[in-house]
Amino acid sequence: MKILVPLKRVPDPDTKIRVKTDGSGIETDGVKFAVNPFDSIALEEALRLREKIGAAEIVVVTIGGDECAEQLRTGLAMGADRAILVKTAAALDSLAVAKVLAAVYAKEQPSFVLMGKQAIDDDSNQAGQMLAGLLGLPQATFVSKLELAPDKASARCGRETDAGIETIDVPLPAIITTDLRLNEPRYVSLPGIIKAKKKPVTELSLADLGVTAGSRTHVLKLSAPPPRKAGVRVRNVDELIARLRDEAKVI
Hints:
With about 250 residues, the chain is α/β, with parallel strands linked by helices. It is about 30% helix and about 25% strand.
């Protein structure tokens, strides 16, 4: 069995983000980057599945420049077997990412793809669904529980919905995207970091994959949210209701 796990390089969740004065992007000086937390959950689940079934190859893949190798090494240190870096300097939207991943899928032919439901930098929540559509594969999204069938031909997925947990069975291969409550990713150990240095990282270009991936959407401008207004102390419940009705317009 082979599990393909895409990883994305994103600003660390604990990093303070500052927008450039011209609104063209974020200031990267002093910003620490990390693996997208949802992708870390996907990789952790792949590792746990391997521990259960006894044998599986886990391949991590990311798209970007040389700087993304750091996140691949983190994935290898967690326990992935090998890594693929698809090198490009272009900023890709969700559809372009899905097209690149579809080409990687065709090259690797994994048993299934396990990926985060969204990235915390753009919160698009589209790449997994688009990848399934491009490949014509079944999909299960927002998965908070995952079990493989004994014959490894299907997966039982618990999905978080507004109405509660929905349980569905999907035949493999499939695209499965992970939610926060699926697991808690393990810490990277020192032995894992040492082992990661010896694991292979394959570099591919878009041309190697036969992909012409151009973004159809573009960010025109970024802006920081306006400062929060100071709170107001009310004297009684009647005044609170009046302010909620007349000023906040929420009742």
